[in-house]
Structures are given as structure tokens and as C-alpha cells.
Design a protein that fits this description.
It is built from 3 helices and 5 strands; from the N terminus they run αββββααβ. The model has no long low-confidence stretch (mean pLDDT 78). It has 2 domains: 41 residues; 86 residues, no CATH class. The chain is an alpha+beta fold. The chain is elongated and about 90 Å long. A hairpin with a 4-residue loop joins β2 and β3.
Length: 137
């Protein structure tokens, strides 16, 4: 066994403490980041799009549902609407305007909308999946 001086023990202890403080700082910053992200998430809406393709007539239809993430309640359901691709986003935004939760001026500002809303789309649904859901109060 080696003889270790008191100075070496103190140096080792200081190194360990500084590494612990650095790790604590990293963990604290990560926690702050996730808390900020969670707070931002609670002010958002989940916009779900469901798309069905009518093979007989060659048309696409969609339904848009809006769920308030904070309360986890469905606040809008469009029912069957004509349109394909990302048309459900426009339908949902029109629903938000109708509910007075969004500005009419921002209707076509999709870059701004992407930060405020969480979008999720389900393709190849059945026609019965596009019926209007009951909105919870």
C-alpha cells in the first residue's frame, strides 16, 4: 500500500466535489429544460387528423379533432370534410377561430402554428371513423 499525503487526499476530495457540483449543475439544467418544456406543452392543443380515401369516387375526406392538453378534453370535432394531405390542419384552425382560441389573421401562418399546436395524422381510416365525435365540456 502506498503512503498518501494529506495534501493528495485533499486534492482528490476537491476534485470529487468539483465533479459532483458539475454533475449537479448538468442535472439541474436538464430539469429546468424539461420543466420549461412541460409548461409550454400545457398551453398547447393536440390537433388530430383522420383521413379516408373514397376509392369508388376517388376523393379524400378528413376529420379534425382538437384536444386541450391542459385539461385533456376534446374541444372541437369537425366531422366529415372534403380534403386531403394537410387540409385537416386548416379545418382545425378554422375550429379554433370559431372557438375564439386563435386569431383569424394567423390562419395561413403555418410556421407560427407549428410552434403552438401538436399535429398528429392517421391515414387510411374507415369512413365510420370520420363521424363527428361528442365534444366534452
Amino acid at each position: 500500500m502506498e503512503n498518501v499525503t494529506l495534501a493528495e487526499v485533499i486534492n482528490i476530495q476537491v476534485m470529487v466535489e468539483s465533479q459532483a457540483i458539475e454533475i449537479y449543475s448538468i442535472v439541474a439544467n436538464a430539469i429546468r429544460f424539461f420543466i420549461k418544456r412541460y409548461i409550454k406543452m400545457t398551453n398547447k392543443y393536440l390537433i388530430e387528423g383522420f383521413e379516408w380515401f373514397d376509392k369508388i369516387n376517388g376523393n379524400s375526406y378528413h376529420k379534425a379533432n382538437i384536444t386541450d392538453i391542459k385539461t385533456n378534453k376534446l374541444i372541437y370535432s369537425s366531422g366529415l370534410c372534403y380534403g386531403y394531405d394537410n387540409q385537416y390542419e386548416q379545418t382545425a384552425y378554422d375550429g379554433l377561430i370559431e372557438l375564439r382560441l386563435a386569431n383569424k389573421e394567423d390562419r395561413h401562418n403555418h410556421a407560427k402554428n407549428k410552434r403552438r399546436f401538436i399535429y398528429r395524422k392517421t391515414e387510411n381510416c374507415l369512413k365510420r371513423d370520420l363521424k363527428q365525435d361528442e365534444v366534452t365540456e
